[in-house]
Structures are given as C-alpha cells and as structure tokens.
Amino acid sequence: MTTTATNSFTDQRYLIISADGHCGAEIPGYKPYLEAKYHDEFEGWAAKFVNPFMDLTTDTADRNWDSDRRVRELEADGVVAEVLFPNTVPPFFPSGNLLAGLPSPDQYDYRWAGLRAHNRWLADFCAETPGRRAGLAQVLLHDIDAAVAEIYWAQSAGLKGILLPGIAPGSELEGIYSQRYEPIWAACEDTDFTITQHGGTGLPDFGVGPEAKAILLIELPIYSHRALWHLMFSGIFDRHPSLRYVMTEQGTGWIPGALRSLDWFQRRMRIESAAEFQFGGEVATKMQYTPSEYFARNCYVGASFIRPIEATLRHEVGVDRIMWGSDFPHSEGSFPYTTEALRASLSSATETEMRMMLSDTAAEVYGFDRAALQTIADRVGPTPAEVSIAFPPSEYPADSTCNAFDPDAVVRSW
Fold this sequence. Notes:
Elements: E1 17-23, H1 39-48, H2 67-76, E2 81-86, H3 97-100, H4 108-127, E3 133-138, H5 144-156, E4 161-163, H6 182-191, E5 194-198, H7 210-233, H8 236-239, E6 244-248, H9 255-269, H10 275-284, H11 291-298, E7 299-304, H12 308-311, H13 314-317, E8 322-325, H14 338-346, H15 351-366, H16 370-380, H17 384-387
Parallel strand pairs: 1-2, 2-3, 3-4, 4-5, 5-6, 6-7, 7-8
C-alpha cells in the first residue's frame, strides 16, 4: 500500500543501492592486471606520474581499493550496494578516464591496455563482496571488434555493463549516432548489459586559464547529455528496444525541459511544410516513439545526491527512472550524511517512491538481488520514519559540501 509522509510507515528499513560509486586500484596495484609486455613501460610511467587529484593523495585515498574499509564506512552510512565507476588513474592515462579525453593514435594501445587492466582489477574487487558491487567495464570506441570482445569478457567476469565514452565535437571519431557502433549496441543487448554515461565525458579542449576552467565546469553537463538525443534520433532504441541507458551524475532538473524540446523538434521535423523537415524529416519520420516515450522506456538517471529543487520534479522525470547515488568517496558526495541528505531532499516522498528510487529501479537496471541485499539493509539501513522527517537547513552539516545541503536554494518549478 502506498504511504505518504504523514501516514504510518512499514518497519522494514530502506535498502540503499548507490547508483554512483567510484573506485580503482592504487597505481602499483594495476601492474598484476596489465599484460606483461607493458610492464617495463608501466614502471617508467608510474615513476614519473604526478597524481592531479587531491583526494587520491590523502589518508582517505584507500577508500578506492580497500574493500573492508569501504564496506565498513558505507554500511555506517546506510548504503548496502553500489554501481562502480572509475576514480583512480589507470595505467598510461594523464588523469582519471572520465576527464582524460580520447587517446591519440600513438597512445591508443597503451590506454587500451590500461583500461583492460582496470576492468580485470574491477572484476576481482566486485568479487570480494558478492552481489554488492555492480562494476562497469570501460571501453574505447576506436576498435569496434576489441570493444565488443571486451563486453563479452566483462559479462563472463561478472561485470554489469559498460561505461560509454563521450565523444567531443570535432573528434576524429564519429558521433554516437553513427552506424559504426552498431556492433556495440548489439553486444550490450545480447549480454543484457546496461550502458551508462557518467558526467564529465566528451569535453572539448577548453584550455588551461582560470576562465577556461570556470566555463568547463558550467558547460560540463551539456557534453555529457548529448548521447541521449544521439541514441534516440539515430534509431538505436528502435533497433535495440531492450537497451538500457543511464545518465549518471548529470543532474535531473534539466530533463523535463530537454524532453519537451526534443519532442518539439521531432514534431516539427515530421511536418513537410516546416523548415525543420528539411533537416530532420528523413530521421524523425522513421522514429517509432517520441523522445519522451523513449526516455520512459529505455532511459534512467543516476541521480547523485539529488537536490531538493530536483526532488520536486521527480514525477516529471519519472520516479521509476531515478536512482539515488551517494558519489562515494568524493568529498561532494553524501557520505557520511546520506540519511540527512535524503531527509533534506526527499522527506515528502512516499515510502513506495523512496523504495523505488533507493533500490528497486537500480536492482532491475543493474541486476542486483534485492531480496538478498535486504537482509543487510535490515541491519544498517535507515527506517522510513527516520527519512520522512524534514531536515531543517539550519541543521545542515557544516563539514559537508554535498549540494543536497544548500540552504540558499529556492525550491520552485523550473
């Protein structure tokens, strides 16, 4: 029975599956997973590498690879399971893969070897806590056969999907909408793999000045969003109707407006007398559904530390499309205040809505055994009554930079 925040709740604690966790090996820890022919080059690269990330140079860096510490701290925060994205720097990369950009031709073999080493480390890391970690294999799109082979290896190793690389405008690679990538979509459908794209991918080169960094941060989501309409308007969801596509750590507030805009473009592209028909008529008239309908069927949101203003739009986005993410172990994530962040954003949600956003959808999308995980949640998860109590801004934790805690935010419709 659906409950409201003012009604009585069930006694069963919430199961929290974070749709956004980050992990990776310590740099020396990748060597055993790297092909032997790269070992000498790896030693030279590792000796010269300077880590650009502050959070990977402190005494908390081992949260990325210390399995016992990770489980202990997540359970203390009420989180039982995670979808895992990369965080540390894989061999031969200048930085973490999400922001590294595409490799040049002379770098490709080394970068690909580094990603394959990460994938193999990740499979072992997930196996340390059976059923509690859904690892995403990293691929590159330069060699389609190699990417497809890695997808099938990843399935055999117990991973749950792929991390789709972004392609910057002007790249030497064709856009996601290209027919060239058809074997990748077919392999993901065949393996029942979820395709996930994390925020921060597909960026052009903004430069290095202070203004460039500010503009990068502002425009970063735009380049991550682009694959959504590439997948819709290229017919990929028509040819592969069971594909699941997730946009993680890209916000949610933009989605209702974007879908309205995409629906408008499609409608105009179907009107022969409209100027838009000349550009998109050939594509739009072949689409079986509207963009909003594709979203409701094939797409999901990894909604890391959803903000209060975004929570008010959950019904427009689709409650069954939203998956909570804590962004552990990033400093801007909800740890160690996940219950408080849920209260700040979602105290008005019904228990049914909360269970959907916290675990039901993620279990379906990434293949978690919800019943098995509930036995752990019964020990560590927050109760529905605890989460239903609104969290006053005056009590927001001063030591958290999570933007679920934003006392200056004005809750309004967009």
